[in-house]
Amino acid sequence: MAQVSTEVPGDERGTLLAFVEAQRAALREAAQGLTEEQAASRPSVSELSLSGLLKHAAECELNWLRLAQEKPNERMRDEGSWAEAFRLVEGESVPGVLAFWDVVARETEAFITAVPSLDDSFPLPPAPWFPADTKVSMRWLLLHLVEEFARHAGHADIIRESVDGTRAMG
Prior knowledge:
The structure is a single chain. This protein is 54% helix and 4% strand. The chain is mainly alpha-helical. Helix 1 (12-30) packs parallel to helix 5, helix 3 (50-69) packs parallel to helix 4 and helix 3 packs antiparallel against helix 5.
């Protein structure tokens, strides 16, 4: 599990980082105790699996972090590799995905802790769903991660219960 600070300052930055971490933990907990096969299973008509959700969330966080840092994303997906963001491929495992996410989580916390203000902004990439030339704040980034992870934590709860009847903690 990520070594994200457990001592949360009572300020906005610390509170938002704690909410991001709580939603990360909810996703991670949904896969605890499962075999690789169980974590990769798709017990409904959806294409989603627990291991795929973990990978997607980790890569999604990295993508937003790189956008905020205004750096290239070494794991950027394109149309041809998009589906691989939602499933483990050869050589990947749940522990490996979680270790990768730990690194990303620590980097996110260090970056957000170091930015002078949560009002600092960065440009969004051109996309049909973003207005042209839109910039968003670091605060927006953290709230978006909470939203993204919470949505997928709900998916993860349903998948886990479908796999073995266990309800996720969190």
